[in-house]
Amino acid sequence: MIIGIANDHHGIDVKGKIINYFDEKKISYINYGADYKDNVDYVDYALKLCEEINLGNVDLGILICGTGIGMSIVANKIDGIICAKVSDVREAKLAREHNGANVIAIGESIDDPVSIVESFINSSLSNEDRHIRRREKIARIEESN
Description:
CATH architecture: 3-Layer(aba) Sandwich
Radius of gyration: 14 Å
Number of domains: 1
Mean pLDDT: 94
Largest sheet: 5 strands, parallel
Helix content: 40-55%
CATH superfamily: Sugar-phosphate isomerase, RpiB/LacA/LacB
Structural class: alpha/beta
């Protein structure tokens, strides 16, 4: 599994913590984010990471901006991407298991970003009928647009 990570100028410190975790655990990742604090447009970074998921170059994505909201909005405009803006470990786990999220977005002021990312990447899709049915309904909505 390869994880893509992208951030704007607000997410540099949080990205550093997550990358340190990836390095410690020998988790493969690709950094698509800004590495400097000059003002940049989060839209460009979210788009790049999501395109890389759709190309198959990364399996899951982590987006970081000031609140996580802007990145999640952009990501959810892209076919094939299901992004959840999450704030804690439980939300990250359920976003993956129940909703089939392939991307999460977090804000720069999140308390424990490493635990959130760990929960997300270590969760897998639920095989419960109710979750499968709901994910299929979401897919049909996307296909009809």
